[in-house]
Amino acid sequence: MSKICTIPISELSKLTSLYSGDNRDCIEQETFIIPDYQRGYRWEAEIHINALLNDVLDFMNMSRKTDDRYCLQPIVVSQSPKNKDAWEVIDGQQRLTTLYLLLKALNLDTFNLEFETRTLTNDFLMKLINENEENHSRPDFHFMSDAWRKMNSWIGEHKKQRLKYAATLLDNVHVIWYDIESSSRETNIDAFNRLNIGKIALTDAELVKALILSKIKGKYCGQELALRQSEISNEWHRMEIELQKPYKWEFLTASSQSDYESHLDLIFNLLAENDESKNYSTYLWFEKHVLSVGNNPEQQADEALKLWQSIRHAFACVNSWFCDATPDTAPTIYHYVGYLLATRKSKLRELYADSKTNGKSMFTKKLRDRILEYVNQINLDELNYEESNSSDIKNILLLFNVLTCENIADGIYNRFPFDRYNAIEKERKGSSGWSLEHIFAQKS
Predict the structure, then answer these.
(1) Dihedral sign from CA coordinates of 429, 430, 431, 432
(2) Which pLDDT belongs to residue 235?
(3) Is the CB of residue 268 less than 8 Å from the CB of residue 207?
(4) SS3 call for 12
(5) Residue 46, class by beta-carbon neighbours within 10 Å (0-12 exposed, 13-18 middle, 19+ buried)?
(6) Which residues contact residue 193 at a Cβ distance below 8 angstroms, ignoring those fewer than 6 apart?
(7) CB-based contact 258:252 (threshold 8 Å)
(8) 357: number of CA atoms within 13 Å, CB side?
(9) pTM for this prediction
(10) Cβ proximity of 211 and 288 under 8 Å
(11) pLDDT per residue over 100-145, tens digit each?
């Protein structure tokens, strides 16, 4: 399977701690090989380079704990099929090349970087770094030259902060290290195609899945390991498919402003208490919990399995809101939750917290109390189309429609279509959402 974790930039030059016992002690400096199937270097100095330099500076100057991390996107590697002591870069070569240049510009120890078939690029990089000799004859050379010039100019402008900046870069800036543990060029190319040609970036969900599947190797092996990994993968897929159903997804994301890359990210954010999945903060939460038990592989495996059970429980809890009705009962929880989310009177996380800590009857009562608390703040006798808050009128009318569906519901049928309501609300967001249509009686 795979090895996945976050590591500080300082460890890219020497991965001994990550691969202790793997006969890498004799390697003085890590070597990363950019294979021939990789695209050329294209980071622009005034956009990508400038953003990275300033992001690290802002992180350095912000009020934070000493162990806080600024996390860059993943670097996906495998053992090189041609050199077992080197790493083949499958994804992240733009970031890795940029880090290599930046570490050189700061005169810091770094790793070796080699281009597999573009030997002219290897020669050019040596001259650029050692002799400051720019070259714009090829696209790769042009963008690397501009990047190098920008880095040195920026470092010169911030020379008083250079030492602190270098320390922050080495110790507090991390990358997500993702070793797919393949020694096959064909497998590596397949992974590259999925991540690049299809432009499918690694999401928090994929990284969390890889973390769990890799960590349970500390508890299982052989056929039992393969069976457990297959069970988790299959159930993972089933949960993702369920959340993709429009009537569920639009219902659950009514009050959310986040654009989820994976539907399961919504479940992970409930557990990790993230409103947004930025800078891989959700994955980092899961990794922190796995590593909190120490370095013992079996204990990490147990913790990973506990997290997996938490994911399953969170999904089951949320999914039960759609299944609370029987042929003889109305879907009360569905209607109450749907109303609170559609009107943005409660956040999904708040309802999830109530649901997981209360039985069905108590949870239903709490939902009803939340709705009453809002409605009791409105003087219904004074509502009118001319002077009242239009959102209050809309919400009261929505509640009337929802309760009407509740009263005439026949088991799981005749539910209020929150998915369609929320979808139209989002589509009309620029024009204040739903409009109020009414008959205003006038004197004849």
Answers:
(1) positive
(2) 93
(3) no
(4) helix
(5) exposed
(6) none
(7) no
(8) 7
(9) 0.72
(10) no
(11) 999 999 999 999 999 988 889 999 999 999 999 999 998 899 999 9
